[in-house]
């Protein structure tokens, strides 16, 4: 079964962390990735640029409308994700609990099963 | 020989060659890699240069050479001196079929189900890592890591290359059958994108189960599992529309069922039920055979289906079985009786919010004329499923009863 673990970040919360705390998060993710690769459960993982760099696009009356900034005005934004292939939802949750973000108030880690997949996974 | 025929031959020979190698040299992990390389070499060479007179012997020889190369380079790395490993290139090829021993090894209980299925498909099924990755819709690197980790675990568990005995053999055989069943289901429940590859998994599961059946013709559960697969696979052309929508059993065009496959399945069911004890695969096959025996949905012998589910519930209690019995009960005693049985599942944690419970309840509510209740449950079921085809089907059911 495939699961998307989405990481919801709060830029204000991240800014308030000390350098050591930030480094610990980075190390935690690196160790998590290494373990997933070794067990054959990682499909891919990606981190996204700051939400301020996003562009929202729509088409109105056939005309494109492009607005700088994120779609939702919110405190939390999608910061990145892990795409996994593992035994079941319990295993996905067990893995998600190892992500360093789970220990930080204000950051969100969400697990959802994938329903449809297509495209080239080999990058 | 055509490329396709060569491919089939290679898949058939893979477990035999691997068995011969492991018997001779031990070290399953290294042998498995060596055989995979030999098979790849054959897949390139044979179509161009012709199939050798003794294809099995050719593969054993080439794989043995690869293994020796591998041992030598390991040696050189470790000791920085080139002491030649004894060159053992077998002239004779043993006649024993080690497929079963390999299956037991690949379905080792210390492995997760995902690793057991992957390793079985590669070492016994003769599929390449790329083919397995594509069938399970994961990148090749992910699948390669999973297979190599599985092999390390088997080595760490210190298994011997022999059939387990007595009670352990029985227990391990159940694991093997479960893995074959999982491979079949993975192909059968194809819900998105690359259906073709996934249908191949169902085909592959049937092929492997046939091999086990050929070696253990007296085992009723092996026979039952093979029958269940055949009877289920026989419906493949009827269970989806051209646009990929699901067609439920009672609405399927039964003339599209594969008759030859059904006949074979029914014969196997009869043979399996003649044995002493009953097991879950035999019973599920008997249920499938009962459905196959009805030319039209209205002619289904629901009393027999219900009786079979009742026995299944007794020997292998499981909420899914109770759920299916509720459907049969509703057909014989009316929807209210079915709904009453479903309420027994409400307290079961495994079924809480499960889309199957919601959709069966919706179906039975619809039969009682409670369209509002049916609408609500179809909608909730549609939101709960992880299959797109099933969601579309449930949404269309909801639209049909919309108050």
Automatic annotation (TrEMBL), chain A:
Domain of life: Bacteria
InterPro entries: Dimeric_a/b-barrel, YCII
Pfam families named among the record's database cross-references: YCII
Residues in YCII-related domain copies: 1-114
Family, similarity comment: Belongs to the YciI family.
Name of the protein in its database record: YCII-related domain-containing protein
UniProt organism field: Streptomyces sulfonofaciens
TrEMBL record, chain B:
Kinase found in the keyword field: no
Keywords (A to Z) from UniProt: Sigma factor, Transcription, Transcription regulation
Domain called RNA polymerase sigma-70 region: residue spans: 10-74
Pfam family, any one: Sigma70_r2
InterPro entries documented for this protein: DUF6596, RNA_pol_sigma70_r2, RNA_pol_sigma70_r4_t2, RNA_pol_sigma_r2, RNA_pol_sigma_r3/r4-like, WH-like_DNA-bd_sf
Domain DUF6596: 172-272
Domain RNA polymerase sigma factor 70 region 4 type: 104-154
Gene Ontology MF annotations: DNA binding; sigma factor activity
Gene Ontology annotations of biological process type: DNA-templated transcription initiation
Source organism, top-level taxon: Bacteria
Family: Belongs to the sigma-70 factor family. ECF subfamily.
Protein known as: RNA polymerase sigma24 factor
Source organism of the structure: Streptomyces sulfonofaciens
Gene: rpoE
